[in-house]
Amino acid sequence: MKKIHNIRTNYQFGSLSKSDLAYSPIKQFKDWFSQIINLMTEPTAMTLSTYSKRYGVDSRIVLLKEIKQDGFIFYTNYNSVKGKQISSNNNVSLSFFWPELQRQVRVNGLAFKLSDAYSTRYFKSRPKKSQISACISQQSEVVLSRNLMEKQFNLMCQQFKNKSIPKPDYWGGYKVKPSCIEFWQGRKDRLHDRFIYEKKDKKWVINRLYP
Ligand SMILES: Cc1cc2nc3c(=O)[nH]c(=O)nc-3n(C[C@H](O)[C@H](O)[C@H](O)COP(=O)(O)O)c2cc1C
Fold first, then answer.
1. Domains (ranges, CATH) in the chain?
2. Per-residue confidence (pLDDT) for residue 12, from 0 to 100
3. What is the pLDDT of residues 43-72, one digit of tens each?
4. pTM above 0.85?
5. Whose CA is closest to 23, among 182, 205, 193, 201?
6. How far is it, in rounded angstroms, from Cα 57 to Cα 167?
7. Is the CB of 40 under 6 A from ligand 1?
8. Substitution candidate for ligand 1 out of 41, 53, 60 with most atoms within 8 A of CB
9. Is 76 in the pocket of ligand 1 (CB under 6 A)?
10. H or E element: which one contains 106?
11. Atom number of ligand 1 nearest to Cα 76
């Protein structure tokens, strides 16, 4: 096997300068997102980091489901480990890595629960079997076997064969309202381009950072 330290990519697809940037980081994110959307299998996958009393920081992948003017939306189980962590400290970070365009986006912000009505609208738009999985999954809890999980799933499929599935109270979305967003474009010789948008007095201030 190749030595890990010999695996190297030279980044040279693009560049980023201040004059390329949109006035708002959400607009800039949408521009980059529209460029990656057809180039990757999971462009919406993002690392969500939360504060864990036990471990300090805890990270996992979730899927971005909507970009609003004031934030990034994802859905989960509010009783999961991440849900409990967010309820005691809603400072979170999101990070996207889009290798096809050699780009990274990092977001720091506060996570807020969406209204139940808003989450219900999205829940109803999901395939029925995904709705059922959300209902039977006590996300982050120990489950005795795969078999048990499948039994619960199949039972619910039968029970709700001709009925719509009500969204469980414990399932819904969060909006991450950003206070800081960084855009990173890989460049030759590790001399990458980095720009950070930070909210100061309700205005976005943009600075270039050393890579
Ligand atoms: C590609 C991918 C997409 C995922 N999307 C979600 C998601 O949108 N929501 C979610 O709750 N978990 C999602 N997960 C599962 C989480 O990474 C994680 O395992 C789960 O949410 C439990 O995390 P927790 O115990 O820290 O709460 C996804 C995992 C992967 C690999």
1. 7-126+169-208 (2.30.110.10)
2. 87
3. 999 999 999 999 999 999 999 999 999 999
4. yes
5. 205
6. 30
7. no
8. 60
9. yes
10. strand 103-113
11. 11
